[in-house]
Inverse folding.
């Protein structure tokens, strides 16, 4: 499918792929964490900060007029 995209669409596929990877890495890290960690532990605080950065970037990425 990627072979038939216009050059402008390829940019959006690349951006989407980056976010997919970012969220995938966060999910893998979360699965490896103990469920008993308190929410105020340094590990959870760090995870929350990293998750916020990825999610914030996702929602603040300029959207093409196609998505409006």
């Amino acid at each position: 499918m990627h072979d038939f995209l216009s050059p402008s669409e390829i940019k959006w596929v690349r951006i989407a792929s980056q976010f997919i990877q970012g969220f995938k890495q966060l999910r893998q890290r979360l699965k490896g964490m103990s469920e008993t960690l308190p929410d105020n532990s340094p590990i959870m605080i760090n995870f929350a900060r990293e998750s916020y950065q990825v999610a914030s970037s996702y929602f603040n990425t300029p959207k093409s007029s196609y998505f409006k």
Remarks:
- The chain has a mean pLDDT of 85.
- Residues 12 and 64 are 8 Å apart (CA to CA).
- DSSP finds two helices and no strands in the chain.
